[in-house]
Design goal:
The chain is α+β, with helices and mostly antiparallel strands. The protein has 2 domains: 61 residues, Arc Repressor Mutant, subunit A; 158 residues, 3-Layer(aba) Sandwich (Chorismate lyase), CATH 3.40.1410. 27% of the residues lie in helices and 34% in strands. It is built from 8 helices and 10 strands. The strands form 3 sheets. It has a 6-stranded antiparallel sheet with strand order 4-5-6-9-8-7. Strands 1-2 form a two-stranded antiparallel ribbon. The protein has a two-stranded parallel ribbon with strand order 3-10. The longest helix has 13 residues. The two termini are 30 Å apart.
Length: 233
Amino acid sequence: MKMYNIIVNKIENRDYQTNDKLPSEKELMNQYSVSRDTVRKALNMLEQNGYIQKSKGKGSFVLDINKFNFPSSGVVSFKELAEKYSSNIETFVEVLECIYPNKNIAKGLETSESEKTWKVVRTRSFDGEKVILDKDYILKKFVDELTYDVCKDSLYEYIENVLGLKIAYAKREITVQNATEEDKKYLDMKGFEMIVVVRSYTYLDDTSLFQYTESRHRPDKFIFVDFARRHQC
């Protein structure tokens, strides 16, 4: 782990650049005074976590880490994620309105089409490129008022710290789809024809479903990460 973390820091600090070849296993053994087994374990972890690509007979090469690591488990706001990165990140509120949901949105919220719902459409800019389109639908009976400033800053911070509600858990579905005209309108697609779609159903601590979100990601900028432990039945 110590060797892994040292190399990760070198990659993240750009001591090792994208496409750079790492030192050989023997050179790493000598540099860090460790066994070949330790070197190989560290390199395997680096590869599994998206930092390097190992090529048989050629060595290990640094990958482009100019991506967000989005946890596929846990409930984290975009603001909380963005605070981990030093890149220039900005949120733009494209739509904020109170609507009566259509059939599909009502189904996502497990409610009726007569239930007033906030529709919030936001784009997320990463180093000057709009690469996420977030479409949030929030039941008005839980969140009576919303403003552009709140939506630009953090919905979850407002819901928890101002309204005093407790967000407990979420269910997610992750798919890859063809990009729509809406995606191409709002995002800098750079010629990509596919989009990563994350649908989230978010619940309060009393098990009330209050939010349905469709988050659409340009595929080159994001890695979705999770941790799983095997338990035998």
